[in-house]
Protein backbone atom coordinates (compact mmCIF):
# COMPACT_ATOMS: atom_id res chain seq x y z
CA UNK A 1 0.00 0.00 0.00
CA UNK A 2 1.33 3.45 -0.95
CA UNK A 3 2.29 5.62 2.01
CA UNK A 4 1.61 9.34 1.76
CA UNK A 5 3.96 11.83 3.37
CA UNK A 6 3.37 15.57 3.57
CA UNK A 7 6.57 17.61 3.50
CA UNK A 8 6.70 21.34 4.15
CA UNK A 9 9.78 23.25 3.02
CA UNK A 10 10.17 26.60 4.75
CA UNK A 11 12.87 29.13 3.88
CA UNK A 12 13.24 32.82 3.22
CA UNK A 13 11.74 32.18 -0.21
CA UNK A 14 12.38 35.76 -1.39
CA UNK A 15 16.12 35.14 -1.11
CA UNK A 16 17.72 33.66 -4.22
CA UNK A 17 20.23 31.48 -2.39
CA UNK A 18 17.73 30.00 0.06
CA UNK A 19 15.05 29.54 -2.60
CA UNK A 20 17.27 27.80 -5.14
CA UNK A 21 18.76 25.52 -2.47
CA UNK A 22 15.24 24.60 -1.34
CA UNK A 23 14.13 23.89 -4.91
CA UNK A 24 17.09 21.60 -5.42
CA UNK A 25 16.34 19.80 -2.15
CA UNK A 26 12.76 19.21 -3.28
CA UNK A 27 13.84 17.81 -6.63
CA UNK A 28 16.32 15.46 -4.96
CA UNK A 29 13.66 14.20 -2.54
CA UNK A 30 11.22 13.58 -5.39
CA UNK A 31 13.83 11.81 -7.52
CA UNK A 32 14.81 9.43 -4.70
CA UNK A 33 11.24 8.71 -3.60
CA UNK A 34 10.74 4.96 -2.97
CA UNK A 35 8.07 3.21 -5.04
CA UNK A 36 5.84 2.61 -2.02
CA UNK A 37 5.77 6.29 -0.96
CA UNK A 38 4.13 9.39 -2.40
CA UNK A 39 5.48 12.71 -1.22
CA UNK A 40 3.40 15.87 -1.22
CA UNK A 41 5.95 18.69 -1.16
CA UNK A 42 4.71 22.16 -0.23
CA UNK A 43 6.78 25.34 -0.24
CA UNK A 44 5.83 28.14 2.13
CA UNK A 45 6.20 31.64 0.76
CA UNK A 46 5.42 35.21 1.72
CA UNK A 47 5.23 36.13 -1.98
CA UNK A 48 8.30 35.57 -4.12
CA UNK A 49 9.30 35.42 -7.80
CA UNK A 50 10.41 31.85 -7.09
CA UNK A 51 6.80 30.73 -6.56
CA UNK A 52 6.29 30.53 -10.33
CA UNK A 53 9.45 28.47 -10.73
CA UNK A 54 8.41 26.06 -7.97
CA UNK A 55 4.98 25.52 -9.55
CA UNK A 56 6.53 24.98 -12.98
CA UNK A 57 8.67 22.27 -11.40
CA UNK A 58 5.48 20.56 -10.21
CA UNK A 59 5.50 21.54 -6.54
CA UNK A 60 2.79 23.12 -4.44
CA UNK A 61 3.25 26.62 -3.03
CA UNK A 62 1.30 27.97 -0.08
CA UNK A 63 1.50 31.77 0.03
CA UNK A 64 0.97 33.07 3.56
CA UNK A 65 0.77 36.38 5.38
CA UNK A 66 2.41 38.78 5.73
CA UNK A 67 3.08 39.34 2.04
CA UNK A 68 6.52 40.68 1.15
CA UNK A 69 6.42 44.36 0.22
CA UNK A 70 9.98 44.76 -1.00
CA UNK A 71 12.21 42.97 -3.50
CA UNK A 72 14.90 42.56 -0.83
CA UNK A 73 13.78 40.56 2.23
CA UNK A 74 16.09 42.60 4.49
CA UNK A 75 13.78 45.57 3.94
CA UNK A 76 10.71 43.57 4.98
CA UNK A 77 12.54 42.17 8.01
CA UNK A 78 14.14 45.51 8.92
CA UNK A 79 17.34 43.55 9.37
CA UNK A 80 20.23 44.94 11.41
CA UNK A 81 23.42 43.43 12.76
CA UNK A 82 22.66 40.46 15.00
CA UNK A 83 18.93 40.67 14.25
CA UNK A 84 17.64 38.90 11.16
CA UNK A 85 14.28 40.50 11.94
CA UNK A 86 14.87 43.85 13.59
CA UNK A 87 11.27 44.81 14.36
CA UNK A 88 9.25 43.08 17.10
CA UNK A 89 5.86 43.37 15.37
CA UNK A 90 7.27 41.92 12.15
CA UNK A 91 8.88 39.00 14.00
CA UNK A 92 5.67 38.25 15.88
CA UNK A 93 3.53 38.36 12.73
CA UNK A 94 5.85 36.02 10.82
CA UNK A 95 6.04 33.58 13.72
CA UNK A 96 2.27 33.58 14.29
CA UNK A 97 1.70 32.91 10.61
CA UNK A 98 4.21 30.04 10.54
CA UNK A 99 2.65 28.38 13.58
CA UNK A 100 -0.84 28.76 12.11
CA UNK A 101 0.05 27.17 8.76
CA UNK A 102 1.72 24.21 10.47
CA UNK A 103 -1.43 23.64 12.48
CA UNK A 104 -3.59 23.87 9.36
CA UNK A 105 -1.50 21.75 6.98
CA UNK A 106 -0.35 19.20 9.60
CA UNK A 107 2.90 18.16 7.87
CA UNK A 108 4.59 14.86 8.64
CA UNK A 109 7.98 16.56 8.51
CA UNK A 110 9.37 20.07 8.05
CA UNK A 111 12.54 20.87 6.13
CA UNK A 112 13.86 24.35 6.75
CA UNK A 113 16.83 26.41 5.74
CA UNK A 114 18.61 29.22 7.57
CA UNK A 115 15.29 30.53 8.87
CA UNK A 116 14.84 30.86 12.66
CA UNK A 117 11.08 31.46 12.27
CA UNK A 118 10.62 27.92 10.93
CA UNK A 119 13.09 26.46 13.43
CA UNK A 120 11.10 27.91 16.33
CA UNK A 121 7.55 27.41 15.00
CA UNK A 122 7.96 23.68 14.42
CA UNK A 123 8.72 23.24 18.15
CA UNK A 124 5.72 25.26 19.28
CA UNK A 125 3.29 22.74 17.79
CA UNK A 126 1.59 19.83 19.52
CA UNK A 127 2.02 17.05 18.55
CA UNK A 128 5.71 17.42 17.77
CA UNK A 129 6.71 17.87 14.11
CA UNK A 130 9.95 16.08 13.10
CA UNK A 131 12.39 18.21 11.14
CA UNK A 132 15.50 18.40 9.00
CA UNK A 133 17.55 21.59 8.83
CA UNK A 134 19.48 22.11 5.61
CA UNK A 135 22.12 24.73 6.28
CA UNK A 136 25.20 26.18 4.59
CA UNK A 137 27.21 25.71 7.81
CA UNK A 138 27.09 23.29 10.78
CA UNK A 139 25.38 25.80 13.04
CA UNK A 140 25.68 24.25 16.47
CA UNK A 141 27.81 25.04 19.51
CA UNK A 142 30.73 22.91 18.30
CA UNK A 143 30.99 25.11 15.25
CA UNK A 144 32.48 27.80 17.48
CA UNK A 145 35.71 25.80 17.43
CA UNK A 146 35.93 26.37 13.66
CA UNK A 147 35.73 30.17 13.78
CA UNK A 148 39.00 31.92 12.98
CA UNK A 149 37.94 35.53 12.39
CA UNK A 150 35.50 38.10 13.72
CA UNK A 151 32.52 39.17 11.59
CA UNK A 152 33.37 42.19 9.46
CA UNK A 153 30.75 44.24 11.30
CA UNK A 154 32.76 44.12 14.56
CA UNK A 155 35.73 46.45 15.25
CA UNK A 156 37.91 43.43 16.14
CA UNK A 157 37.68 42.30 12.50
CA UNK A 158 40.21 45.00 11.62
CA UNK A 159 42.95 43.24 13.61
CA UNK A 160 45.55 41.17 11.71
CA UNK A 161 44.28 37.66 10.98
CA UNK A 162 46.87 35.97 13.19
CA UNK A 163 45.82 38.14 16.12
CA UNK A 164 42.13 37.49 15.51
CA UNK A 165 42.79 33.74 15.66
CA UNK A 166 44.71 34.14 18.92
CA UNK A 167 42.00 36.27 20.53
CA UNK A 168 39.19 33.95 19.44
CA UNK A 169 40.97 30.89 20.85
CA UNK A 170 41.30 32.62 24.22
CA UNK A 171 37.57 33.44 24.50
CA UNK A 172 35.61 30.98 26.74
CA UNK A 173 32.75 29.07 25.10
CA UNK A 174 30.12 30.86 27.22
CA UNK A 175 31.42 34.19 26.01
CA UNK A 176 31.43 32.99 22.40
CA UNK A 177 27.76 32.09 22.69
CA UNK A 178 27.06 35.73 23.51
CA UNK A 179 28.47 36.83 20.16
CA UNK A 180 26.15 39.67 19.05
CA UNK A 181 26.11 38.28 15.51
CA UNK A 182 24.23 35.22 16.81
CA UNK A 183 21.67 36.72 19.16
CA UNK A 184 18.38 37.40 17.23
CA UNK A 185 16.85 38.70 20.46
CA UNK A 186 13.86 40.28 18.69
CA UNK A 187 12.73 36.92 17.31
CA UNK A 188 13.33 35.34 20.73
CA UNK A 189 11.12 37.90 22.48
CA UNK A 190 8.33 37.30 19.97
CA UNK A 191 8.58 33.56 20.62
CA UNK A 192 8.41 34.02 24.40
CA UNK A 193 5.33 36.22 24.06
CA UNK A 194 3.65 33.60 21.86
CA UNK A 195 4.16 30.85 24.42
CA UNK A 196 7.63 29.41 23.92
CA UNK A 197 8.50 27.02 26.76
CA UNK A 198 11.07 29.06 28.70
CA UNK A 199 12.60 25.91 30.14
CA UNK A 200 14.03 25.38 26.64
CA UNK A 201 16.92 27.73 25.80
CA UNK A 202 16.50 30.24 22.98
CA UNK A 203 19.80 32.11 23.24
CA UNK A 204 20.44 32.68 19.55
CA UNK A 205 21.09 31.09 16.17
CA UNK A 206 22.09 27.63 17.38
CA UNK A 207 19.01 27.18 19.59
CA UNK A 208 16.65 28.66 17.01
CA UNK A 209 17.82 26.30 14.25
CA UNK A 210 17.91 23.25 16.52
CA UNK A 211 16.75 20.11 14.70
CA UNK A 212 16.77 16.33 15.01
CA UNK A 213 18.68 16.10 11.75
CA UNK A 214 21.04 18.38 9.83
CA UNK A 215 22.08 18.36 6.19
CA UNK A 216 25.12 20.63 5.92
CA UNK A 217 25.38 21.75 2.31
CA UNK A 218 29.12 22.30 2.25
CA UNK A 219 32.29 20.33 1.63
CA UNK A 220 33.29 18.05 4.54
CA UNK A 221 37.01 18.72 4.12
CA UNK A 222 36.49 22.31 5.33
CA UNK A 223 35.44 21.09 8.80
CA UNK A 224 36.53 18.96 11.74
CA UNK A 225 33.88 16.30 11.11
CA UNK A 226 34.75 14.41 14.28
CA UNK A 227 33.34 17.31 16.31
CA UNK A 228 29.81 16.70 15.04
CA UNK A 229 27.33 14.00 15.98
CA UNK A 230 25.83 11.42 13.63
CA UNK A 231 22.75 13.52 12.93
CA UNK A 232 25.00 15.91 10.97
CA UNK A 233 25.62 14.93 7.35
CA UNK A 234 28.03 16.98 5.24
CA UNK A 235 26.56 16.66 1.77
CA UNK A 236 28.73 18.89 -0.34
CA UNK A 237 27.27 22.10 -1.72
CA UNK A 238 24.00 22.16 -3.64
CA UNK A 239 22.65 24.81 -5.92
CA UNK A 240 19.77 24.81 -8.35
CA UNK A 241 20.00 25.54 -12.05
CA UNK A 242 16.21 25.85 -12.19
CA UNK A 243 16.22 29.61 -12.79
CA UNK A 244 19.01 29.44 -15.34
CA UNK A 245 18.14 29.53 -19.01
CA UNK A 246 19.86 29.62 -22.34
CA UNK A 247 21.74 32.87 -22.76
CA UNK A 248 20.01 34.45 -25.77
CA UNK A 249 20.85 38.08 -25.03
CA UNK A 250 22.91 39.23 -28.06
CA UNK A 251 25.33 41.20 -25.86
CA UNK A 252 26.00 38.18 -23.64
CA UNK A 253 26.42 35.91 -26.66
CA UNK A 254 28.93 38.37 -28.12
CA UNK A 255 30.83 38.39 -24.81
CA UNK A 256 30.82 34.59 -24.64
CA UNK A 257 32.08 34.19 -28.20
CA UNK A 258 34.68 36.97 -28.15
CA UNK A 259 38.11 35.63 -29.07
CA UNK A 260 40.06 38.83 -28.39
CA UNK A 261 42.73 39.00 -25.73
CA UNK A 262 40.64 40.96 -23.24
CA UNK A 263 40.28 39.27 -19.87
CA UNK A 264 36.66 38.46 -19.04
CA UNK A 265 35.14 39.27 -15.66
CA UNK A 266 31.68 38.23 -14.47
CA UNK A 267 30.16 40.25 -11.62
CA UNK A 268 27.26 38.89 -9.58
CA UNK A 269 26.46 40.28 -6.14
CA UNK A 270 22.99 38.74 -5.87
CA UNK A 271 20.30 40.36 -3.75
CA UNK A 272 22.37 40.29 -0.57
CA UNK A 273 24.60 43.18 -1.61
CA UNK A 274 23.68 46.85 -1.83
CA UNK A 275 23.89 49.69 -4.35
CA UNK A 276 27.25 50.91 -3.05
CA UNK A 277 28.83 47.47 -3.56
CA UNK A 278 27.51 47.32 -7.12
CA UNK A 279 28.64 50.82 -8.07
CA UNK A 280 32.17 50.13 -6.84
CA UNK A 281 32.28 47.05 -9.07
CA UNK A 282 31.20 49.08 -12.11
CA UNK A 283 33.97 51.61 -11.39
CA UNK A 284 36.58 48.81 -11.48
CA UNK A 285 36.44 48.92 -15.29
CA UNK A 286 36.55 52.70 -15.69
CA UNK A 287 40.22 53.27 -14.92
CA UNK A 288 43.68 51.76 -15.13
CA UNK A 289 44.07 48.11 -15.98
CA UNK A 290 40.31 47.64 -15.68
CA UNK A 291 39.77 49.52 -18.95
CA UNK A 292 41.45 46.60 -20.74
CA UNK A 293 38.99 44.04 -19.37
CA UNK A 294 35.47 43.17 -20.51
CA UNK A 295 32.67 42.46 -18.06
CA UNK A 296 29.12 41.28 -17.61
CA UNK A 297 27.58 42.81 -14.50
CA UNK A 298 24.27 41.74 -12.99
CA UNK A 299 22.19 44.56 -11.47
CA UNK A 300 19.22 43.01 -9.61
CA UNK A 301 16.20 45.35 -9.42
CA UNK A 302 16.20 44.85 -5.64
CA UNK A 303 19.64 46.48 -5.46
CA UNK A 304 19.85 49.14 -8.16
CA UNK A 305 17.75 50.37 -11.06
CA UNK A 306 19.30 49.30 -14.35
CA UNK A 307 19.35 52.76 -15.89
CA UNK A 308 20.95 54.23 -12.78
CA UNK A 309 23.65 51.54 -12.81
CA UNK A 310 24.40 52.23 -16.48
CA UNK A 311 25.15 55.89 -15.69
CA UNK A 312 28.38 54.82 -13.96
CA UNK A 313 29.71 52.87 -16.95
CA UNK A 314 32.64 54.47 -18.80
CA UNK A 315 33.90 51.36 -20.58
CA UNK A 316 32.27 50.16 -23.80
CA UNK A 317 33.34 46.60 -22.98
CA UNK A 318 31.05 46.49 -19.92
CA UNK A 319 27.49 45.17 -20.24
CA UNK A 320 24.97 45.45 -17.41
CA UNK A 321 21.73 43.46 -17.25
CA UNK A 322 18.94 42.96 -14.72
CA UNK A 323 17.76 39.66 -16.22
CA UNK A 324 18.28 36.09 -15.01
CA UNK A 325 21.18 34.55 -16.91
CA UNK A 326 22.75 31.13 -17.29
CA UNK A 327 25.43 31.90 -14.72
CA UNK A 328 27.30 28.64 -15.19
CA UNK A 329 27.86 29.25 -18.89
CA UNK A 330 29.17 32.75 -18.19
CA UNK A 331 31.34 31.54 -15.29
CA UNK A 332 32.98 28.98 -17.56
CA UNK A 333 34.08 31.71 -19.97
CA UNK A 334 35.16 34.17 -17.27
CA UNK A 335 38.75 34.54 -16.12
CA UNK A 336 37.62 35.93 -12.75
CA UNK A 337 34.30 36.25 -10.94
CA UNK A 338 33.51 39.18 -8.64
CA UNK A 339 30.75 38.07 -6.29
CA UNK A 340 29.16 37.86 -2.87
CA UNK A 341 29.77 34.87 -0.61
CA UNK A 342 26.46 33.09 -1.12
CA UNK A 343 26.91 29.36 -1.39
CA UNK A 344 25.15 28.88 -4.72
CA UNK A 345 27.22 31.60 -6.36
CA UNK A 346 30.47 30.18 -5.00
CA UNK A 347 29.52 26.64 -6.00
CA UNK A 348 28.85 27.81 -9.56
CA UNK A 349 32.36 29.28 -9.67
CA UNK A 350 33.82 26.06 -8.26
CA UNK A 351 32.06 23.84 -10.81
CA UNK A 352 33.26 26.22 -13.52
CA UNK A 353 36.84 26.16 -12.18
CA UNK A 354 36.90 29.97 -12.03
CA UNK A 355 38.81 31.89 -9.31
CA UNK A 356 37.03 34.77 -7.64
CA UNK A 357 37.13 37.99 -5.65
CA UNK A 358 34.39 38.12 -3.04
CA UNK A 359 32.66 40.26 -0.44
CA UNK A 360 30.70 38.90 2.52
CA UNK A 361 27.38 40.62 3.11
CA UNK A 362 26.42 38.23 5.92
CA UNK A 363 28.54 36.41 8.57
CA UNK A 364 28.02 32.99 6.97
CA UNK A 365 29.18 34.38 3.61
CA UNK A 366 32.38 35.53 5.26
CA UNK A 367 33.06 31.96 6.39
CA UNK A 368 32.32 30.57 2.92
CA UNK A 369 34.78 33.01 1.37
CA UNK A 370 37.43 32.36 4.03
CA UNK A 371 37.30 28.66 3.14
CA UNK A 372 37.97 29.37 -0.53
CA UNK A 373 40.59 31.98 0.28
CA UNK A 374 42.50 29.56 2.52
CA UNK A 375 42.22 26.91 -0.19
CA UNK A 376 43.83 29.34 -2.61
CA UNK A 377 41.19 29.97 -5.29
CA UNK A 378 39.79 33.26 -3.97
CA UNK A 379 40.55 36.67 -2.51
CA UNK A 380 38.11 37.96 0.12
CA UNK A 381 37.74 41.71 0.55
CA UNK A 382 36.35 43.16 3.78
CA UNK A 383 33.40 45.47 3.29
CA UNK A 384 35.38 48.55 4.42
CA UNK A 385 37.94 47.83 1.69
CA UNK A 386 35.30 47.30 -1.01
CA UNK A 387 36.48 50.12 -3.24
CA UNK A 388 37.05 50.03 -6.98
CA UNK A 389 40.82 50.52 -6.71
CA UNK A 390 41.20 47.66 -4.21
CA UNK A 391 38.88 45.31 -6.11
CA UNK A 392 40.82 46.03 -9.31
CA UNK A 393 44.07 45.24 -7.49
CA UNK A 394 42.75 41.86 -6.33
CA UNK A 395 41.39 40.95 -9.77
CA UNK A 396 44.76 41.85 -11.29
CA UNK A 397 46.52 39.66 -8.71
CA UNK A 398 44.41 36.65 -9.65
CA UNK A 399 44.94 37.26 -13.37
CA UNK A 400 48.71 37.50 -12.81
CA UNK A 401 49.11 34.30 -10.78
CA UNK A 402 48.11 30.96 -12.32
CA UNK A 403 47.97 29.30 -8.89
CA UNK A 404 44.44 30.65 -8.32
CA UNK A 405 43.14 28.91 -11.45
CA UNK A 406 45.04 25.73 -10.54
CA UNK A 407 43.50 25.71 -7.06
CA UNK A 408 40.04 26.26 -8.55
CA UNK A 409 40.55 23.22 -10.77
CA UNK A 410 41.74 21.17 -7.79
CA UNK A 411 38.69 22.11 -5.71
CA UNK A 412 36.43 21.27 -8.63
CA UNK A 413 37.92 17.78 -8.81
CA UNK A 414 37.50 17.31 -5.06
CA UNK A 415 33.87 18.42 -5.21
CA UNK A 416 33.14 15.83 -7.88
CA UNK A 417 34.15 13.02 -5.50
CA UNK A 418 31.14 13.79 -3.27
CA UNK A 419 27.81 12.21 -4.40
CA UNK A 420 25.79 15.11 -3.00
CA UNK A 421 22.37 14.28 -4.42
CA UNK A 422 22.63 10.62 -3.48
CA UNK A 423 23.68 11.47 0.08
CA UNK A 424 20.76 13.87 0.52
CA UNK A 425 18.17 11.62 -1.10
CA UNK A 426 19.13 8.54 0.89
CA UNK A 427 19.36 10.37 4.23
CA UNK A 428 16.01 12.18 3.85
CA UNK A 429 14.15 9.01 2.94
CA UNK A 430 15.85 7.02 5.71
CA UNK A 431 14.50 9.63 8.13
CA UNK A 432 11.01 9.57 6.59
CA UNK A 433 10.85 5.76 6.71
CA UNK A 434 11.33 5.94 10.47
CA UNK A 435 8.38 8.29 10.95
CA UNK A 436 5.07 7.02 12.29
CA UNK A 437 2.89 7.79 9.28
TrEMBL record:
Keyword Glycosyltransferase appears in the UniProt entry: yes
Entry keyword annotation includes Glycosyltransferase: yes
Pfam families: Glyco_tran_28_C
Enzyme class: transferase
Cross-referenced Gene3D superfamilies: Glycogen Phosphorylase B
Source organism superkingdom: Bacteria
Protein name listed in UniProt: Putative glucuronosyltransferase
Organism: Capnocytophaga cynodegmi
Species lineage: Bacteria, Pseudomonadati, Bacteroidota, Flavobacteriia, Flavobacteriales
Amino acid sequence: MEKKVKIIISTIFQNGGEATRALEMAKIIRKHQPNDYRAEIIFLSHSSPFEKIAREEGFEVCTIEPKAKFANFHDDFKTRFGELIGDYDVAKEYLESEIAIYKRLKPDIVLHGFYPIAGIAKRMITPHIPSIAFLPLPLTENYLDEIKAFPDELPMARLPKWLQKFVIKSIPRKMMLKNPALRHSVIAQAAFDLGWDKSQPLRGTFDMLRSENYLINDFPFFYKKENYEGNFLFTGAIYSETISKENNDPEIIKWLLADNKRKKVFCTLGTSGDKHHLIEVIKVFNEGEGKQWSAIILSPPAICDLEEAKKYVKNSNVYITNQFVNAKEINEKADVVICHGGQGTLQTAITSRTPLVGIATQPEQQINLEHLSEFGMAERISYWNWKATYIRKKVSKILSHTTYKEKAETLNKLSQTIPTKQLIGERVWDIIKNLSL
